[in-house]
């Protein structure tokens, strides 16, 4: 299989196939730092405010992930108008 992956055409086909399986909405997932320096409820309130602003501009809110150990803060999963995912965190 290693020799086959040296074939750029086959490698590109496999890469496109696996990217489609892993992220059907697009090839890139961004994490947008919307509340640097904040923690806890202030963190989530700032994320909610930024999410509301982006929804007004055409983004779609998918779901909110609450803070859970071992992480300090939660995040909000959203999509752009073309369906590409990004997180506010």
UniProtKB/TrEMBL annotation:
Signal peptide: none annotated. Residues 64-89 are annotated as: Disordered. Pfam families: Glyoxalase_6. Residues 26-88 form the Glyoxalase-like domain. InterPro entries: Glyas_Bleomycin-R_OHBP_Dase, Glyoxalase_6. It comes from the Bacteria. This is Glyoxalase-like domain-containing protein. It comes from Saccharopolyspora hordei.
């Amino acid at each position: 299989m290693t020799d086959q992956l040296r074939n750029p055409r086959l490698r590109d086909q496999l890469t496109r196939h696996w990217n489609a399986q892993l992220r059907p909405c697009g090839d890139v997932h961004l994490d947008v730092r919307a509340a640097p320096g904040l923690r806890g409820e202030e963190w989530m309130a700032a994320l909610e405010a930024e999410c509301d602003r982006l929804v007004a501009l055409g983004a779609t809110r998918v779901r909110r992930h609450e803070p859970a150990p071992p992480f300090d803060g939660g995040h909000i999963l959203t999509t752009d108008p073309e369906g590409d995912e990004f997180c506010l965190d």
